[in-house]
Amino acid sequence: MHVERMRQSEQAPAPSDEGGTAAGPASHGDLPSSDRAARRAVTLFPLLVVAAGAAGLFWPTHFTGWAPAVPWLLGLVMFFMGLTLAPPDFAAIAKRPWAVGLGLVAHYVIMPGLGWLIATVLDLPPQLAAGVILVGCAPSGTASNVVTYLARGDVALSVSVATVSTVLAPLVTPPLVLLLAGEFLDVDAGSMVVDILKTVLAPVLGGLLVRLAVGRYTDRALRLLPWLSALTISVIVLVVVSGSAARIRDAAALVLLAVVLHNGLGLALGYATGKLARMGAPASRAMAFEVGMQNSGLAASLATAHFSPAAALPAAVFSVWHNVSGAIAAAWMSRAARRREQRPSPRG
């Protein structure tokens, strides 16, 4: 999702509600325009995804033959992400290498590990097990930055972790899938690297280069990017769900249980990582979403290409669920932060 409006709205770091500083905006009251825009995006995005998933589930025959478009659609989303990147994003990474490094390690350790653990404990069939693990090994989700903003979290940290996890995905995701899912299915890590380079890294770099070359023209279109991204991701969900509609009905309860556990534990452990590292509340909120929200569109594309449509089921369900749970968690965190800020200061 698009973060330029949030970046423009950020002021100097404000005091955290639990110590430290918040790189993101500490108060939304004086930012009505950008706040409303971001809230509309993150509120409508889950609704669009749910509607797309429902359409694919109940009218799958209407979308027969759309599957080859998924990698191209994912590449388009990644291109949009590249367009939103700017030099300050990379400067933020350089200024906070420890925090970004911790977020990156947490992301690529917690979610892959949880995927393997859940697949093993639930004794999932091989295709579903590989799909759950693949979701866990994917880079950060495209909506995590907006959700972090709405949760009154550290937006700069969120953008940094999402950017680095995406850039490193070709090097990290295939070996992790091979290591953790290899016991369930044969994994061709080499061809997976090529696919991630084509559908993720190349479009992101392309968008960044376009932004650097003709930024004065692309800046005018940045307001449209969250909606274009939301629509594109919704079409990806539609196609993936429609291609696996019958299997989703047959294994709905089991897949949903695996996805809810995976996402919920990821959010909780991501937040706990930030708290244990004493990063402050805003950074801990960012860690929750950077760990718990995955690029499930990439996972679905890779599962379909390298395993089977059945392996794409967890990614399809995750695409719907993590956006809904992320929006709910962000609303709860934001209200909790507001209540803390409104408490009278203790008298010394």
UniProtKB/TrEMBL annotation:
<feature type="transmembrane region" description="Helical">
    <location>
        <begin position="157"/>
        <end position="180"/>
    </location>
</feature>
<feature type="transmembrane region" description="Helical">
    <location>
        <begin position="251"/>
        <end position="274"/>
    </location>
</feature>
<keyword id="KW-0472">Membrane</keyword>
<feature type="region of interest" description="Disordered">
    <location>
        <begin position="1"/>
        <end position="33"/>
    </location>
</feature>
<dbReference type="InterPro" id="IPR038770">
    <property type="entry name" value="Na+/solute_symporter_sf"/>
</dbReference>
<dbReference type="Pfam" id="PF01758">
    <property type="entry name" value="SBF"/>
</dbReference>
<dbReference type="InterPro" id="IPR002657">
    <property type="entry name" value="BilAc:Na_symport/Acr3"/>
</dbReference>
<feature type="transmembrane region" description="Helical">
    <location>
        <begin position="224"/>
        <end position="245"/>
    </location>
</feature>
<feature type="transmembrane region" description="Helical">
    <location>
        <begin position="41"/>
        <end position="59"/>
    </location>
</feature>
<keyword id="KW-1133">Transmembrane helix</keyword>
<keyword id="KW-0812">Transmembrane</keyword>
<feature type="transmembrane region" description="Helical">
    <location>
        <begin position="65"/>
        <end position="86"/>
    </location>
</feature>
<feature type="transmembrane region" description="Helical">
    <location>
        <begin position="98"/>
        <end position="122"/>
    </location>
</feature>
<dbReference type="InterPro" id="IPR004710">
    <property type="entry name" value="Bilac:Na_transpt"/>
</dbReference>
<protein>
    <submittedName>
        <fullName>Transporter</fullName>
    </submittedName>
</protein>
<feature type="transmembrane region" description="Helical">
    <location>
        <begin position="192"/>
        <end position="212"/>
    </location>
</feature>
<feature type="transmembrane region" description="Helical">
    <location>
        <begin position="128"/>
        <end position="150"/>
    </location>
</feature>
